[in-house]
Amino acid sequence: MPAPEPDARAVRRRPKNRRAQIAAVSAAEFAALGYHRVSMEDIAARLGISSTALYRHYPSKYALFAGELLRLGELTVAAVSLPPEAATWPDRRRLGHAIDGIITGTIANRTTVGLARWESRYLESDDKQTVDRHFATAITVIGGLLGKVRPELSDHERRVRAVGLLSTVSCLGDHRITLGAKALTGLLNSACWALVECDLPTLELPPAAPPAVEVPPTLTHEQLLQQAIRLFYEHGYPNVAVEDIANAAGLPSASTVYRYYRGKSDLLNAAFRRAADRMSAVIGPTLAESSGPAEALAKLIDMYVTGAFDEPELIFVYFAEFGHVPDHERATLRVVQRLVVAEWATLLARVRTELTPAEGHILVHAALGLVVDYGRVFGDNERIYPRQWVIRLMEAVLFGRGAH
Q: The pTM is what?
């Protein structure tokens, strides 16, 4: 063929699916970095187009963000919806169809499912109500199917288990541990059925919570850290200013904060280090005091749940705000997180020898995330999900069906 003319221009054709391509790339960016750390310029750069071209398809970053969360909500409802022929199916098959739908949809959207858990609080009011309604509908449907399989369960126990099913599967968005689709589907399916079939302890009303320990006013650095954690939990890290933290701690100005911390990011890093240290520090002593891996893992579960109930704001911030930890600190914290999960997974492998290392790690992530999701959905209402129930549900996810 003849060589092209030197002055000939390469013709760049616009992809027919440009809008879908933009939506997919932006969703992946939001999931990796969080909504506030992504700009339209970042998305355009990833696509290799100009910002002007991007704005021709979407009016704003928020439109892309809300669109993905609305899509995930609709997908969740569709996943648990039964086909017309399901009317003649046995109850267990109907519930199994919904569980399979959740797993299949989550695996297909693994890179973005975390958005619905951690970033939906940044939606505008109307959009957030729509997304919340989608997930509430899914929980109601799953709870109804659960009730047919186990009619002896109370309404709120069905709801607790339904939230547990969604949480166990959606944990895939929190890590990148690889496992073949068939093995992953089987693992998550088994964990979900363990949540369905386990028996929870019969409880009276939960005991009154112990009075909060007051921080002495002289410990200003601790006051600042506690108020920062509370504000990050209530409003999200990007929406909290140093002035807000100073006011909450009763300090006269933001400049006073800098006597104790270098800035807002330093406070977030301190919160992460506190949570990570508490999770890692108990592993060694627990192993030394236990007669075997099953007892050690049961003790770690109990301590983790107790800590999550005692400091729900800290544990939520630990899961939800990792993307805002300063880059130079994130690598160190990531190592600590992985070591904690690895220690739990090693104990689990000694209890359940049939599990591969990857399967053990996935189950540990699911069990740890379960506690946070209960707090995210139910708040601090221990009348709905007592800590003894959460302990038992974590054990079901880790130890499997038939475990006691």
A: 0.88
